[in-house]
Amino acid sequence: MGRALRIPADKTAIFLPYQARWIRDNSRLKLMEKSRQIGLSWSTAYATVSRTALASARHDQWVSSRDDIQARLFLEDCKLWSGNLELAARDLGELALDAENKHTAYTLRFANGKRIHSMSSNPDAQAGKRGGRVLDEFALHPDPRKLWSIAYPGITWGGSMEVISTHRGSKNFFNQLVREYKESGNPKKISLHTVTLQNALDDGFLYKLQQSLPDDDERQEMDEAAYFDWVKGGAADEESFLQEYMCQPADDDAAFLEYDLIAGCEYPAEIDWSICEGGELYAGVDIGRKRDLTVLWILEKLGDVLYTRYVLTLKNMSKAEQEKALWPLMQRCRRTCMDATGLGIGWADDAKLKFGDYAVEAVTFSTRVKEALAYPVRSRFEAKTLRIPYDQHIRADLRSVTKQVTASGNIRFTAERTPDGHADRFWALALAIEAASGAQGGRWIPMTGHLAQQQQQSELEKNWIPGDV
Questions:
Q1: Contact 197, 35 (CB under 8 A)
Q2: How far apart are CA 431 and CA 384, in angstroms?
Q3: Tell me: the pLDDT tens digits for 176-206?
């Protein structure tokens, strides 16, 4: 089809140039800001095996991954390289490092007695361990600064520390390390590597990828420009694409919720977040039809923490079709706060008739009401009393909301309208939090005081006639 792929100079080479540069770099502190899914964890596993299996090796290697699944996958890559390199290695399975604190690691032992320990993200598991460090998906850890602080002393007696990650917001500690290197004279003496999606494609990444794909995969017919557009088109939004693939951290000063706040409340990948545990359920429903989504968000209240149990998104469905999907879920909930703005008026009225005034609270959005709904969302994230699933669309929605101050000093919460809605998941979550906030002493307090005042004030402003006193 006339495609002109960038083919590596040595087509038989195992590693692409950016991977080879990373492997060959023997610096004491290495940092890689990278695009997603370009084979850096795979090539890092090779480097980790190579130095640990040497007869002269002096140190174990301690690998920290984002979660338990990633920890196991990294060790699987290490086992693969051990076999390919014909190195004697034994998989010791999951070993207890600290039984009292339940710290474990997946461990691979080599003939020289040295080991690779692959652990999930708990920074405390790094304490007291001597030897090399690999901190994978560093920015995604709940507390990257703490992880660095505990892991770094472990290389005092030798070994290196490798930090690998995509970005997670401009205020994340990972980006602070990058900025120190670029703007402050590199006080930590870090060796920085940067590989965007475009960098990887320029080094022949697509050619290598196509060698491993089935013949009928649609990417077999793409050149680099088409593949770049294909990846960009699948991203949740422009900000997500630039951050996940082009090493441009999202601006945390512009968004109402910083990435670190969101990440601190996301479920680890290995947890099934949809399983209820016997608590009361509360729901928020943001209504849309064609341009926007209808989103139902269900929270389970267990003590002081609200756990997400279900997020339903609907689009381009009639009112009857949406009600057929919404009503059975709302019926399971003790209380629902429902968008009654514009199109939502009819939905809220019908829901009240079906479930009763006690079970459904109609909320009319206004500038004041949105402000009253938005701040409790941020408070929950700050206090870590909310759990949400790890999902790119949810994260993009939460990030899309910005707080703006008008010339008259009023606060407005806004979001750009995208093909994936208009921050509809954010407002459904805000409504669900409001629904849960009214439960006191086994009874329901209709509309918490602050929000009720804002709704009443909005009604007064709506009906106010210039000249009235």
A1: yes
A2: 18
A3: 999 999 999 999 999 999 999 999 999 999 9
